[in-house]
Amino acid sequence: MSxxxxxxxxxxxxxxxxxxxxxxxxxxxxxxxxxxxxxxxQLAEQQMLVRTRGxxxxxxxxxxxxxxxxxxxxxxxxxxxxxxxxGLVTAGEAVGxxxxxxxxxxxRALAVxxxxxxxxxxxxxxxxxxxxxxxxxxxxxxxxVVTGGVARPQSYELIGPLADGxxxxxxxxxxxxxxxxxxxxxxxxxxxxxEAAINRLLCxxxxxxxxxxxxxxxxxxxxxxxxxxxxxxxxxxxxxxxAETVGRxxxxxxRVITV
Length: 259
Description:
Layout: H1 3-17, E1 19-21, H2 22-29, H3 33-45, E2 49-52, E3 55-58, H4 75-86, E4 94-97, H5 101-111, E5 123-127, H6 130-136, E6 142-146, E7 150-152, E8 157-159, H7 161-167, E9 172-178, E10 181-183, E11 187-190, H8 193-204, E12 206-212, E13 224-227, E14 234-237, H9 243-251, E15 255-258
Parallel strand pairs: 4-5, 4-9, 5-6, 9-12, 12-14, 14-15
Antiparallel strand pairs: 1-3, 2-3, 7-8, 10-11, 11-13
Helix pairs in contact: 2-3, 4-5, 5-6
């Protein structure tokens, strides 16, 4: 395992558990305790965690893992979900993409669709995610519209009133939401209220809304609500999703696609 992959795994384990001991992390990643101690020290220097005697804890009371460290886990599920979401898009449509690892995979799945290799444009992509715009800007068949705003370093998303100005002037066919949590009662949610506000506006400007979320996000709550479940048309998730949870979403009127 490379250092970068090891760091991603360590940080994700730390976010899940809140605290990690050196021996516990070494056993989990199948490396030496000395390697883990060195990793913890280097990550502490970058203020990604707080070093403790014998281990580490998350940095700060409220912690969100930056996007660049989120790609290691559930990668295959996210890629399957992304391919299914991309299949819901029709050539010539205007598609809104929020930020996040799953929506980034959706952008990549759209980029390799052979029927979208040409067009004037083949798709219009509206996004507030700088990394998605950067990946798709090299595709001349795609028209890329980027909202204004202030960049949020954790998710590469543009937030704030400058983004409102762009989104208030357009309409889109399909909005694809990446979420931190999606629950029948509490709806779709994010960790940051400013990010949730932009995502909410993107939904309001769309004819159809798709939530792209792996099964770990379902039935969970998060701090900032994006929209109610009634605002969502389709949920695309993986086959590990709990059958009872899927049934509740279907009873709420959603089309649920599991892949």
